[in-house]
Amino acid sequence: MMFDSDVALLGTGVAPLVAANHLLIQGKSVLLLNPDWDFFLEDSELSLDPMLLEMPSPEKIRQSSPESALKQLRPDFPGAIELWSPEMEVGKEGFHDTSAPHVRKRSRLWVSSADKNKLWNWEDLEDFYVETSDAGLDPQIAEGPPAVKRFPGFSFNTGNFRSLSLPKICDVDLSRYRNGLLEYIRERLGPEKTVCAVNQLEYMPDGIRFYANGSPHTARLKDGMLVFWTPRLSSWILNQTRKMEMPPSHIPRIPQGIRYWEQWSINSREASDPGVIGMFGDMAVWSDFEGAPSFATRTLKEKNLRNPKLPCLTVLRTGPLRPSNDIQLQQAGLSSNSWASADSFAALSNLCHGFLRWDRFSVRNLRVRALFEWEKSESDIRAELGTQSDNSKQPWELFKGNPRTWIVPGSDGPLIDVVRTARAACGYL
User: Fold this and answer.
1) Where are the domains of the chain?
2) Among residues 421, 24, 44, 33, which one has the least CA distance to residue 225?
3) Are strands 276-280 and 102-113 parallel, antiparallel or unpaired?
4) What Rg value do the Cα atoms of the chain yield, rounded?
5) How far is residue 164's CA from residue 110's CA, in Å, rounded to a whole number?
6) Could you tell me which residues come within 8 angstroms of residue 184 by beta carbon, excluding any fewer than 6 positions away?
C-alpha cells in the first residue's frame, strides 16, 4: 500500500526531519507523520542554549561551542552550514555561502553591579570564572565602562559594573536550518510520505491506522515507529499509556513541567556588537539577523570603525513553569497576547530604561514557546560534569508488540541538543 514503510516517525519540528534524513541515508523507507498542518507550528526549538536558569557547567559550554555545533548539525543537513565569527576577514575564509544556515560564534557576557538589581551576583560569577578558567575556556573579567560597553543595545550608564565573558559559545541560524531541512525531506519523500494534520492514530496488527485530510489510512511498518515527545504529543502519549494500562512507575521519566519562554523582538536604539549575547538576570539579549551581519564582509580597516546599527534586538526571557499536564495551549496554539503580562513589560522596562538607559523602546513582536523542563537526575549531573554520556533521556518502549514503538524525550529545546537526540534515537530501530 502507499503508506507501507520500514519506519514511521511521529512528531513536529526538527527532530523527525533529522531522523528521517538519517534513516534515508541508511536506505530505509520512511513515513513522516505530523499532527499539525505546519511542521513548525509548535516552534519547539531554540537557536541557542539560554543558560538562564543556572550557571552552565564547563561540559555544557563545550557542547555549545561552534566546533561542537558544526559536528552535530552538518551530517544530516543536505547543504552547506557556514561558520561566522567576529574575527573573520574577507578573502581569507575561502568560499562562503551567504544564503546557507550559519553557526555564529558569539561571546556570552554576564554583568554584575553593586546594587545587584536584576543582575548576576558577583560572588557567583567569581566562582564561575575559576571553574571555567580551570577548564580552559578562557573567561575574561572587566570592570567599569569596559565591562558593559559591548552589551547589545547599551547606551550609557554610570553604574559600578563588572562582567565576565566567555568567547567560544555559539548560536544557530534556526529558521534557515529548519526550512532547508524540511524542503529537502519533502522532496525526498514526496507528498504521499509526508503527511500533516494526522489524527486518531491507533495501532493495528503489524502497523497503524490514522486519519488525514478527512480520510482514513493504514500503514504497515517493518521496523517500528519513533514518537518524538514534545508538549504537542503529550496527550497522545499519555492516552496510549492508559490504554495499555501502563503504570506511571513504568514510564522511565516524566517532565518536571512545561516552561514558557518569551522571545521579544524590539527596535534597537543603539548600535550593537553582533558578536555578543548579553545575560541580564532572567533574559538573554542579542542582535537579530539571519546569516552573517553585513559588516562581516568589510575590510579589517573598516571593522575598526563603529559597527553599523543593527535594527533589532532579540530578548529571550524565562516565563512561568507549569505542570506537565498543562497542554491546553499546545492543543490550540499559543497566544502571545495572553502572555504579555505586566511582569513581562516590567522586565523589559527594567532592561531598556534601567540598564540600557534608553528613553523609550518599541516592541516589534512576541513569540511564546512551550518547552519541557526536566528535573535533574544523577545521570544529568554526571553528564554535565563530563564523567559519562547523558543517558537520562534515552528512548523508552511504549508498545512492544508489532509495530514496536519508542518514545523519544528531549525532542524540544536548543537545536543542537534536539539534533543529537534525534540522531541517537534512530539506533533503537
Assistant:
1) 5-428
2) 33
3) parallel
4) 23
5) 5
6) 21, 78, 79
Query: What is the CATH topology of the domain spanning 5-428?
Result: FAD/NAD(P)-binding domain (3.50.50)
Give the model confidence (pLDDT) of 300-351 as tens digits. 334 444 444 457 899 999 988 888 765 544 444 455 455 667 888 899 999 9
Cβ–Cβ < 8 Å for 64, 225: no
Q: How many CB atoms lie within 10 A of CB 12?
A: 27
Alpha helices in 244-389 (DSSP H): 300-303, 328-332, 336-339, 342-349, 378-384
The count of other CB atoms within 10 Å of the CB of residue 325 is 13
The string of pLDDT tens digits covering residues 137-171 is 999 999 888 888 889 988 876 678 889 999 989 99
The C-alpha atoms of residue 350 and residue 348 are separated, in whole angstroms, by: 5
What are the residues whose beta carbons fall under 8 Å from the beta carbon of 269, sequence distance 6 or more? 153, 155, 352, 356, 358, 359, 360, 361
Distance CA 16, CA 33 (A): 9
pLDDT band at 213 (very low <50, low <70, confident <90, very high): confident
